[in-house]
Amino acid sequence: MSTQSQRNPRSSAAIGDANRGPSAAAARRANVRRLVDKPTYMVESVHNALVLLTEVRDQGGIRLSDAATVLGVAESTAHRLLSTLAYHGFISQEPDRRYVAGAQMGIEPALAGTQRALRAACQPELDRITRATNETANVMVRTGTLSRTIASVESTRLLRIGSRLGHVTEAHRAAGGRVMLAELDSASLHALDVESPFPEGFAELLAVVRARGYATSINEVEDGLSSIAVAIHLDDEAIGALVLLLPSSRFPFGSEARLVKHLATSVERIEGALRRGGPELVVDRRRS
C-alpha cells in the first residue's frame, strides 16, 4: 500500500466522526467507557506496580535499576514491588536478572528492540507537538485487533486528556488503531474480521482514512475523548501511529487541518529518525 496519502494528509475527518459531530457516534457508544481522569487520592503503591507491569509488557522486560528510574524511587522500593509481582506470577526473573512477563500476564510481551527504538524516535516529537498544540500526544502500536499506547506526553491545560500510557483499546475504535488498520491489505483485514468482527460500515470508513491519510475517533473509546492520528512508517509499513487526544468539546469539527499538519510534520521527522536507526530495528521487526 502506498504511503503517499499517509504523508500528505488532507482536510476533513473520517466517516461518522468530525464532519458529523459527536452525535454521529451515538449508535456505537454502547460499550464506550466514561472519560477516566487521574484519581485525586491515588494509591501510589498500586499505581507503581501497574506502571511496572506496563513496562514489562511493552518493553519485553525490565531490570531493577531501570524500574527504580521509571518510578523515581529507591532500588529497595522497586525490588519489593517486583518481588511481590513475581510472587503472584505476573512477572518472573530471568538468569540475566531481568524481569519478564509471567504466566498471569496473559499477553505476549512486545518486541523490546522495536518499541524501544520507536519510543526513542518519537519522544522529541511528542514533546514538540504537545507544546505546539497544547494537547496530549500519544504513540500507539497495534497487535492484531488491539492498539496499545507505548508513549505519552500530557497537555498542561486545565481541561485536558490525561496520559493514556499503557492503555489497550480495540483498534477499530481508536484513531491510532484505525489509521494502522487502514494500511492492511484485504486478506489481512479479513483475517482480523474473522477473529473479532468489525462493526458494520467499517470497510467504508477505512477507505476514507486511506484517501485522507489520517483518522479520527469521537467519543468511541471514552465518552468525552476525541482523537486524531497519522500513521508512522518504516520501510513502507505502518509500525505505529502518532495521536493527539483532546476533549470532545474542543475538537475542531471540520477544521482539523492545523492539527493534521502538526501530526504530519512530526511523523516525517520520526520516520527520518527511524531510518537513521540502523539495521538492528529492521532485523528485530522481522522476528515478529
Q: Please, how many helices?
A: 10
Any low-confidence stretches, pLDDT <50, length ≥5? 1-27, 278-288
- Rg over CA atoms: 19 Å
Listing every helix as H and every strand as E from the N terminus to the C terminus, the arrangement reads: HEHHHEEHEEEHHHEEEEHH
Short characterization:
The chain is of the alpha+beta class and 288 residues long. It has helices at residues 4-7, 44-59, 64-71, 75-87, 112-133, 175-181, 186-195, 202-212, 257-275, 279-285, and strands at residues 33-34, 91-93, 99-101, 136-143, 146-153, 168-170, 215-218, 222-223, 225-234, 237-247.
Question: Could you describe the 3D structure shown?
Answer:
There is one protein chain. With 288 residues, the chain is of the alpha+beta class. The chain has 2 domains: 4-37 and 111-285, GAF domain (Beta-Lactamase); 44-105, Arc Repressor Mutant, subunit A (Orthogonal Bundle), CATH 1.10.10.10. 41% of the residues lie in helices and 19% in strands. Strands 6-5-4-10-9-7 form a 6-stranded antiparallel sheet, with helices on both faces. The protein is globular.
Task: Give the SSE map.
Elements: H1 4-7, E1 33-34, H2 44-59, H3 64-71, H4 75-87, E2 91-93, E3 99-101, H5 112-133, E4 136-143, E5 146-153, E6 168-170, H6 175-181, H7 186-195, H8 202-212, E7 215-218, E8 222-223, E9 225-234, E10 237-247, H9 257-275, H10 279-285
Parallel strand pairs: 1-8
Antiparallel strand pairs: 2-3, 4-5, 4-10, 5-6, 7-9, 9-10
Helix pairs in contact: 3-4, 5-9
Jot down its keywords.
single chain, 288 residues, alpha+beta, Beta-Lactamase, Arc Repressor Mutant, subunit A, disordered N terminus
